[in-house]
Amino acid sequence: MILHVYFARRFLTSFLVLTLVLFSLVALIDLVDQAGDFSDLDVSFGRIVGLTLLKAPETVNEILPLIMILATIVLFVGLARSSELVATRAAGRSALRALIAPVVVALIIGGLAVTMLNPIVAGTSKRYSELSESYRTGGASTLSISGEGLWLRQGGADGQTVIRAWRSNADASTLYDVTFLSYAPGGGPVQRIAAESATLEAGGWVLSNVKLWPLQAGTNAEANAEYHTEYTIPTTLTLDRIRDSFGRPSAISIWSLPEFIAQLDQAGFSSRQHRVWFQSELARPLFLMSMVLVASAFTMRHTRFGGTGISVLAAVLLGFGLYFIRSFAQILGENGQIPIYLAAWAPPVAAVLLALGLLLHAEDG
Fold first, then answer.
1. Would you say residue 365 has pLDDT above 50?
2. Residue 174 and residue 101: Cα distance in Å, rounded?
3. Where does the chain have alpha helices with state H?
4. Residue 233's beta-bridge partner residues?
5. How far apart are CA 129 and CA 58, in angstroms?
């Protein structure tokens, strides 16, 4: 038991140090990128630093498998160089028993990443999107989906416009039974528009079967209402920006994701991408565990045999390959080419079986 605690402490220390180093490196690189992106805008350095700190957790969350591989490599290469691993085997402990502590720590870290880090990343990502959009256009464009339909807000120099639609097509390019409520820069409503449908095209919403009410003070809105077969409302929104508002599952806490998926289905959107993401997040602890097993399969050897650098490189490359396969499977799942559960769970299970095969072969040898 004491030996397991020792290995667990060594592995956790390596993981925390590498996380801190990579977080600092990611934040520094992103700070330079953010400064370049906002160089033409009147954005203070303090706000750029704030954006950098909001974006960094998402990047660290994405490279968590790499951190896990490097932490495992640091652990076992260190144990091999100090001959502690040789002493452990001489005491009668097999390689698989020596892996119990790192694997358990990896599972705990994976569980914390899903239950705690995921909501933090969702909050910071959403706040980053809102602030960066506000700095670029002067007004945030946001989207909300509830049981009462779809709500959008677009902003600009002419004021804000709130859009409510009861349903939409799968990619949000066409809204049905839609209402536009425009506000002046000072905050007061100036116009209400109801339409049978609204289609987003380049630079504007194209409305069909439209009724328009002016809402200026002292005006009889109903008496001055106008009817149009087709009407165009300028907008800075694009399909990509709308999809970014709700289509990035990483911006939604895993605790809120099941309810959000149900609301997407009710509003007429495709929720397949969110379902794949949800299952992939649930499978994340298993995938992180597989990274520990893969790295250990190449590094649990004494340094006197040589080839340590090649073994480390092979472990990192195999880890990258498995990460690529996992991402590719998620894309196939999102496109409907393979079942959702197969896309989310097959790569981690296959990675674990592959690593166990390598470990058992090395142990038998």
1. no
2. 53
3. 2-37, 45-62, 64-81, 84-90, 95-98, 100-112, 118-137, 239-246, 257-267, 272-282, 284-299, 308-334, 340-364
4. 205
5. 12
